[in-house]
Structure formats: C-alpha cells, structure tokens
Design goal:
Distance between the termini of chain B: 7 Å
Radius of gyration of chain A: 17 Å
Number of helices of chain B: 2
Shape of chain A: globular
Number of strands of chain A: 7
Strand content of chain A: 15-25%
Largest sheet of chain B: 16 strands, antiparallel, barrel
Oligomer: heterodimer
Largest sheet of chain A: 7 strands, antiparallel
Number of domains of chain A: 1
Radius of gyration of chain B: 25 Å
Structural class of chain B: mainly beta
Chain lengths: 243, 472
C-alpha cells in the first residue's frame, strides 16, 4: 500500500514538529490550543484548522459564517470529550487508490473521502489522547455534521452532532442515542438491528451516523495503523510539506 | 425523488433569478450521496422540503367481498418549511384511494328557459383531505407552540401514522376500520397547543403534547343513490350517514375539546405513553350535548432482538341515546321537508348510523424481529427483513345499529355488542429504510356479532395482503 500524502501543513514550526512526530506547540499554526481557562483563542493571522467535510459541503461554507460555527462547536466538543488542556493537530491527507479502496471495503462506503482531514488530540505533556474526525453525512434532506472522537486505541470515545439541519429526527443528536457508539471499533458492525438501536422516524439519520462512524474508524485505522498510537515518522504520517 | 427548493428571501436579485434558481434546483434533482459533493447553496433562515409517503396493496380474502383487487391506498404529499430559525410550517395533503374527481357545470339556453347542469365525476372511494397544516414557534427549552390542523395525540398510532413507518400493510382496527379513536386515523383537528421534549437523566426522554381542539362532533354526509328496478318504481335514495367526524375548520364549531399525551422513554427503544381526549360530540345545533372521553395507553419495548409495540384505547360516549334521538329528530324534520314522490320515481330518505357505541375499547400488539441482511442482498446496501405478528381485538359495547322515530317522536335505538379479533402474521422487507414490502396473512374472527372489518356476513375470513409503502 502506498503512503498517504499530507497536503497541507500550515506554519513551519507545526510542520517541523508534526513531521518529526511531535505534537505542535500551542501557538503553532495548524493546531488549536487553549490556556488553562477561558475560551479557545483564534490564532492571530492563522486560520483554525478546518475539517475537510466542512470545506466543501453546503453545511459549512467559508462564506456563510457557518464554517466558523462548526469549528467553534468542534473545538468545544473536543474540550468536552478530552478535557482541558487539549491541543489538536490537524493532518490533511490525500489518499492513494489502495487506501481509498481499503477504507471503502472496511467501512462499506461506496464513496470514501479521498482527502480526509483528521485530528490528533494531545493532553498535557504531549500525551496522545486520541483522534477525531469531523464528517458530513447526508440525512433525509441535508447533511448532518458530526464529530467522531476515538481514544489512542481507535475505539470510539464519543460521537457528537455539531450541526443537525433536519426538522425531524433530531433525537440522533441526543446524548442517550450517541452513547451507543462508545467503545465501537472498526471491527464492529455499527448497524441498526445489530448493535445500534434505531430511532423510529429517524432511520435515515441513524443510518447516516452509522455510516459516518464506520467511515471514520476505517479512515483512522488506515491512516494511523489498526492499533492507533502515536504516529511515527515514516510509518503512516508522511513527511511535512506533502512529500 | 426528493426535490429541494432553496430560497433566499430578500437576497434574491429579482423574481426572474429566483425562478431560475428554483428551476435549477428542481432540474438538479436530489443531492448526491456524499454531502461534500453537493456544493448546494443553503439559506438556513428559509427553506422548504418536499416529501411524502404512499402505499399500495393487493388483497385477497375468502369471502365474496371485497374482491381481489389492487388498491392505491393513499398518497400523501408533505411540505416542511423552515421560516426563520424558530418557526416551522408543516402540511400534509392526502389523496386516499384517489383516482379522479371532476366537476362539470354548464348553463345552456333552452326553449322557454335554460338548462343548468352540474355533475361530479370521480373514482369510487376517492378522498382528498388536508391531513396536517400547522405552524410551530419554538419557544426554547425543547417546547414549541403549535397552531393549525394537528393530529390529536391520542394513542401512538395517530401521531405516527405514516405508512412507511409500519411493518404491516393495514392500519389497526381500533385506529381505523373499527375506530375506538373518536375519529378514524389519521384523525385531524384544528388545534392550538404546546409540544415539548425534555431529557430525563442520562438516557430518558419525556415527550408531551397538549392541545385545545375543536373536537369531533356528530355529523352527517349526504349520499345519493339511484336504485333502478325492472318492475315497480325506481327510487332516488338520499342517505344521511351519521357518525362522529373531525371538527370543522371553518369556525363553525366550538373549541371545547382537549387532548394530551405524555410519553416517557427511559431508554432508547422503550417508551410508555398515556393519553386522553375529552370533548362535546353533540353538534352545536343541539342544545344539550354529551361528552366523549378517550383514554389511551401505549408503548414500545425491546426484548432482546424482538421489538414490541402496542396500544390500548377506551372511549365512552355520554348520553348517547338522548343525543342520537335529538340528532335524528333534527334530521327527521329536515328529511320530511325533502321527501316526496313523483311518477314512477320514489324519493326515500334513510339514515345510517356508524361509529357510535356506549363504550368502545380494544388493543393491538405488534411483534417484530428485525434481521439485518448481509450487504448486497438484492443489490441493497443495508436491507432488513422483519418477521412480524400482530394481534388485535376490539369491543363495541352497545354499538348503535339503528335509530328510529315512532309516530310520537319517540326514539328507539337498536344496539348490539360486537367483538372482533384479528391475527396478522407475515414478513416485511425493507430494502432501504424508507421503503417496505409486506406480505401478511390475516385472519378475522367475529367473536360477537358480525364482522366489523371486512364488512361481510361470514363469521371469519382468511386473507392475504401484499403491500408496499414508501416514504420520500
């Protein structure tokens, strides 16, 4: 299988640190961080990391202001899931055909994302807390934007709906529904009538989340290795600069 | 096929561009599977989703009626509009067994006068109705103020009546054919109320609705029949079918009914609901009106892989004999004015009473075992097969069969107790979540009195129903 290519690293420091397999410093571009208390700052002159899904979907267009809204929700969700302090390093990928095929087969996804954006989330002392992905999956009428966060072992730690745009089926965003995904791994079915309890009247939304969780787990497993862990130079995370 | 209208009020440069945008949205068809590929503009402050559901079925029973037939059971078209962040408008227009309704009117000169002609043509059993039309203002905290033609929240079927949601091709007896509900589902009333959802603990949810309604009343529908006979006079029969009907929407009936439902879901897949309705059923034309009261209990539960769902309803009509007498007396006066004979054509007046009993109660219980089939079966991504069974029973205590006025204007009400049971066993196949094919064997048993549905003279029937329901 060919190596995945990261195509965007913003900031020389972040590039160097990430390329060396070391988490970026708090102020580095391409990372988000926060002080011990208070809101997450937006780095001056540096765009906060943008989820790939939000870049091109109608849900989070750069010109609509909703992209920033999604990002704010994403950052808040990451803090809620992983606790304080937290720092996330964004990896942008361009997948090889083999990787796309692998993800597609594992996630039963006919149209895998060929340029996913993933997040590595670190705690104090550069300790890897886990990974995350923001996804858009189509509900009945509109995309549902949600975040899938895993632990270092690539088991789902939490799923959180960031933006739900439908008028019906909003219960998929409830904690009582989403807690079903905790602990799910790529090897789990993640299907209604198997290991996910359906919501009557919201089946399409439930299936959308199932599909997205499967895709996230397959993508993270492919990119960071089936066991997860700290990405090592020359293993899954490519050299900086899209090399 | 889903078509989306995406409209930006006040931002559009002109009507022509809006029309162009609408046309483009229509021609563009549904969005692709992956949202990243749409790039569709979206104005979250105003949008309209078009959708609907429909069902068809083929049924055959071992009785003379109804014949083995294909039925376009219903087609419901829905619009769901978001008007700003906190206001939503929802409508459903139902075409039930609908083929065609055509009205013809003509005025022509004739020797010494004019001929006025009006004719209504249509397919039998066709019904066109506004099933829902309400606006809702989100008040915050999961509570909404809802106003318009709403579904009274009594039991669980009426508020979740979309055909594609269910794994059976026929609606339950107590909600439809032998309605214990004050009116058959989908039962619609003009209403004003509140609807809310409140989380309870980590896994619980409290769902509630309460409405002030116009409420069901005794109403009549005039039916005309021409009965031709080879010997003897033919008859033009004017039949007044009398029974409870949903309240008027034209402001002519009092808003004196209330309905409410509270449902607690302690965890996903489990819910228990309590509901009730009370209102005056006598029409406003009668001075003294009795009340109709309905109590409901419903729920769903998962037992391992088996999904159970059920509903119990009980309805009581106060002072039914007196109200019916007053009502028929009222109709009788009018009928007398219309009655008459002429030549070989006799005009007759008849009144048919239906849907009224002192007490009506019954239940249904569904069991289903959803089996997620392997991906790719018949080319579908996530097909599901559901072996299903339903048992239902309905009791009509003091069911009114006939009301007669004697010469002294006294009222004689003919009553009978009736009971029916129905067992349905079969399978439902869902190739995609919003489409289902059903194949069900049905057995109906008249436990007391004649069968309620189907309305045949046999004491029991066996039948097979194959149906399809789709939401879109």
């Amino acid at each position: 299988m060919g190596r995945a290519l990261r195509i965007a690293v913003r900031g020389a420091l972040a590039a160097a640190l990430v390329g060396a397999g070391v988490p970026a410093e708090p102020a580095a571009a391409g990372s988000l961080s926060r002080p011990a208390s208070g809101p997450l700052p937006r780095q001056a002159g540096v765009a906060l990391p943008r989820p790939a899904a939000a870049d091109t979907s109608g849900a989070a267009r750069p010109d609509s202001g909703s992209s920033a809204r999604v990002l704010a929700k994403r950052d808040r969700a990451l803090r809620e899931i992983f606790g304080d302090p937290v720092r996330a390093v964004e990896d942008r990928w361009r997948l090889t055909r083999a990787e796309v095929r692998s993800i597609g087969e594992e996630a039963h996804d006919a149209v895998p994302d060929t340029a996913p954006v993933t997040l590595r989330v670190y705690g104090e002392g550069h300790r890897l807390l886990g990974y995350a992905m923001v996804l858009d999956e189509r509900g009945k009428y509109r995309p549902i934007t949600f975040l899938v966060a895993t632990g270092p072992d690539l088991a789902v730690r939490e799923v959180e709906v960031l933006v739900y745009r439908e008028d019906r089926g909003g219960e998929v965003g409830s904690a009582r529904f989403l807690r079903q995904y905790r602990g799910k791994r790529a090897s789990d079915p993640v299907r209604t009538h198997r290991d996910i309890v359906n919501i009557t009247g919201a089946t399409i939304s439930v299936n959308a989340l199932n599909d997205g969780v499967r895709r996230a787990l397959a993508t993270l497993g492919t990119l960071y290795g089936p066991e997860g862990g700290e990405p090592a130079l020359g293993r899954r995370v490519p050299l900086p600069g899209g090399g | 096929m889903i078509r989306r209208f995406l409209v930006r009020p006040r931002r559009a440069p002109g009507a022509a561009l809006v029309a162009l945008a609408l046309s483009a949205a229509w021609l563009a068809g549904p969005p692709p599977v992956r949202a990243q590929q749409t790039g569709t503009a979206e104005a979250p402050e105003f949008r309209v989703d078009l959708g609907g559901y429909g069902s068809t079925r083929l049924e055959a029973i071992d009785a003379d009626e109804p014949p083995t037939s294909l039925t376009l059971r219903r087609l419901v078209l829905t619009t769901d509009a978001r008007v700003g962040d906190r206001f939503r408008v929802y409508t459903e227009i139902e075409f039930e067994r609908f083929g065609e309704i055509e009205l013809e009117k003509a005025l022509e000169r004739a020797a010494g006068g004019a001929d006025l002609e009006q004719a209504v043509e249509g397919t039998g059993g066709s019904e066109l109705s506004l099933e829902q039309a309400w606006g809702q203002l989100d008040l915050g905290g999961g509570v909404g103020l809802r106003f318009g033609a709403v579904l009274p929240p009594v039991g669980r079927f009426n508020i979740h009546h979309d055909d594609d949601v269910w794994n059976f091709p026929r609606r339950p007896l107590i909600d439809r054919a032998a309605a214990v509900l004050p009116a058959s589902a989908a039962w619609t009333e003009m209403g004003l109320g509140l609807a809310g959802r409140t989380p309870v603990g980590e896994t619980g949810l409290l769902d509630w609705q309460v409405y002030l309604l116009n409420g069901t009343t005794l109403d009549f529908a005039m039916e005309h029949k021409l009965e031709t006979r080879a010997t003897g006079p033919s008859a033009l029969v004017v039949e007044a079918a009398v029974g409870p009907s949903p309240g008027a929407v034209d402001g002519s009936s009092r808003a004196d009914a209330v309905a409410a439902r509270v449902a607690l879901s302690p965890s996903l897949g489990t819910e228990i609901g309590l509901s009730g309705y009370r209102g005056r059923y006598a029409p406003d034309a009668l001075e003294d009106g009795g009340a109709v009261s309905t109590l409901g209990m419903d729920g769903r539960r998962r037992l391992g892989p088996v999904e159970l769902e059920g509903e119990f309803l009980y309805t009581h009509y106060d002072d039914l004999t007196r109200v019916l007498g007053d009502f028929v007396r009222l109709l009788g006066t009018r009928e007398a004015e219309a009655a008459g004979t002429g030549g070989e054509l006799v005009t007759e007046i008849e009144a048919e009473i239906g849907g009224l009993s002192d007490d009506r109660y019954g239940f249904w219980l569904d069991a289903g075992l959803p089996i997620a089939l392997p991906r790719g079966v018949l080319g579908f991504e996530a097909p599901v097969l559901v072996p299903v069974a339903r048992y239902e029973r309905v009791w009509l205590s003091g069911d009114v069969e006939k009301v007669a006025l004697d010469a002294a204007e006294g009222v004689a009400v003919g009553r009978a107790d009736r009971r029916q049971g129905r067992l349905s066993v079969g399978v439902a196949f869902r190739p995609v979540p919003q489409a289902v094919f059903h194949l069900v064997y049905e057995r109906n048993d008249a436990i007391e009195g004649a069968l309620l549905d189907p309305g045949v003279s046999e004491g029991s029937t066996n039948g097979v129903v194959f149906g399809m329901a789709v939401g879109f």
